[in-house]
């Protein structure tokens, strides 16, 4: 069992996370939360990077006791400014996801703050639905300029930079590229293998953008610039393959349009369990189990109900199986649904 000293509990590391100024009461709560986390896992993994390295932004690591949601936004009490409910209400009335709406609300609040203070603020890497809705919401606000960057034109996960137009004269440098190379000819590694190796160093997912596989050569990875020195000195293995990690210019990224395969399935409904079962060629009962285990996502949000209805444009992801997009949906003469599925290879 791990015991934490009194000094650590009184003065927990990284006291100001997500821009929250804690009161003495909240410091005690944070210390208790970190103590509980230390009992569950190796404490150094959560609290301290390697001693030989110094970092200006400790919140890059899992030491952060404040909860981040799936979109890289702090959702601790008090993290979201009051107001902005109009944004959430408007998105929900349009059938939007509540999690997306809350994140968009936070980003618009951040935009107003950046504009009034004449500064530039940046989000972590966000999923496509959040980027789309946030950009639409920011366009309606006066004296706020927003820039979306993912490192290359087809990037899915992007960071937003917001600020007053007078100071947003150039695109901020918010994305860095890494090349992870090794001999993957005899042991190919998947997207999940590379992501797992990166997260295994203690970094949170929201600091990592797209991962572009390079076949036998390895992969190119987009990250926040603050992580470059850490990863180039720490990451030395992906799976069982020894690797080297170096920074490369964004212009050196090698990417191709995704390969896809389209086909049509006829189903009694457009429920996610029926459509995904047909799209990924797995039994419906197994897919239901995967939904229960949190292994199925629609538009980058975990599915909680088997009967969730899909629509054209939705992206369905299944852990270990890949991703597909819902194309055109037609109703047959017998009242069933002919659904076009676009499977990413």
In short:
By secondary structure, the protein is of the alpha+beta class. It has helices spanning 6-10, 24-40, 43-47, 85-93, 98-117, 128-139, 191-199, 228-234, 272-280, 284-292; strands at residues 121-122, 145-149, 159-163, 176-182, 208-213, 218-223, 237-238, 241-248, 260-267, 296-298, 301-302, 315-318, 322-331, 337-344.
Descriptive notes:
- The chain is α+β, with helices and mostly antiparallel strands.
- It folds into four domains: 6-60, no CATH class; 85-163, Ribosomal Protein S8, Chain: A, domain 1 (2-Layer Sandwich); 176-252, RRM (RNA recognition motif) domain (Alpha-Beta Plaits); 260-344, Structural Genomics Hypothetical 15.5 Kd Protein In mrcA-pckA Intergenic Region, Chain A, CATH 3.10.290.
- It is 30% helix and 22% strand.
- The chain contains ten helices and 14 strands.
- The chain has helices at residues 6-10, 24-40, 43-47, 85-93, 98-117, 128-139, 191-199, 228-234, 272-280, 284-292; strands spanning 121-122, 145-149, 159-163, 176-182, 208-213, 218-223, 237-238, 241-248, 260-267, 296-298, 301-302, 315-318, 322-331, 337-344.
- The strands form three sheets. The chain has a six-stranded antiparallel β-sheet. Strands 5-6-4-8-7 form a five-stranded antiparallel β-sheet. The chain has a three-stranded antiparallel β-sheet with strand order 1-3-2, covered by helices on one side.
- A hairpin with a 4-residue loop joins strand 5 and strand 6 (218-223).
- Helix 4 packs antiparallel against helix 5 and helix 5 (98-117) crosses helix 6.
- The chain is globular.
- It starts with 5 loop residues before the first helix and ends with a strand.
């Amino acid at each position: 069992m791990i015991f934490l000293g009194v000094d650590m509990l009184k003065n927990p590391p990284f006291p100001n996370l997500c821009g929250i100024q804690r009161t003495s009461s909240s410091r005690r709560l944070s210390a208790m939360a970190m103590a509980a986390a230390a009992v569950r896992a190796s404490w150094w993994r959560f609290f301290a990077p390697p001693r030989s390295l110094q970092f200006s932004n400790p919140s890059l690591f899992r030491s952060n006791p404040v909860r981040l949601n799936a979109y890289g936004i702090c959702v601790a009490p008090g993290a979201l400014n009051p107001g902005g409910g109009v944004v959430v209400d408007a998105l929900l009335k349009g059938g939007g996801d509540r999690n997306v709406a809350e994140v968009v609300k936070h980003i618009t609040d951040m935009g107003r703050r950046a504009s009034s203070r004449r500064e530039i603020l940046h989000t972590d890497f966000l999923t496509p639905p959040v980027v789309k809705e946030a950009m639409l919401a920011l366009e309606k606000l006066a004296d706020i300029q927003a820039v979306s960057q993912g490192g290359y034109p087809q990037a899915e996960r992007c960071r937003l930079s917001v600020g007053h137009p007078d100071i947003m004269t150039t695109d901020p440098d918010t994305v860095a590229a890494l090349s992870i190379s090794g001999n993957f000819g005899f042991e190919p590694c998947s997207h999940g293998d590379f992501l797992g190796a990166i997260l295994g160093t203690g970094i949170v997912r929201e600091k990592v953008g797209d991962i572009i596989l390079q076949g036998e050569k390895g992969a190119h990875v987009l990250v926040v610039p603050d992580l470059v020195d850490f990863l180039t000195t720490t990451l030395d293995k992906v799976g069982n393959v020894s690797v080297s990690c170096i920074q490369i210019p964004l212009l050196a990224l090698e990417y191709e349009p995704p390969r896809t395969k389209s086909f049509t399935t006829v189903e009694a409904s457009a429920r996610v369990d029926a459509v995904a079962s047909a799209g990924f060629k797995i039994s419906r009962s197994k897919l239901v189990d995967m939904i229960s285990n949190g292994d199925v996502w629609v538009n980058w949000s975990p599915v909680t109900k088997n009967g969730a209805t899909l629509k054209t444009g939705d992206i369905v992801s299944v852990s270990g199986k890949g991703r597909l997009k819902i194309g055109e949906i037609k109703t047959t003469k017998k009242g069933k649904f002919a659904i076009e599925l676009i499977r990413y290879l």
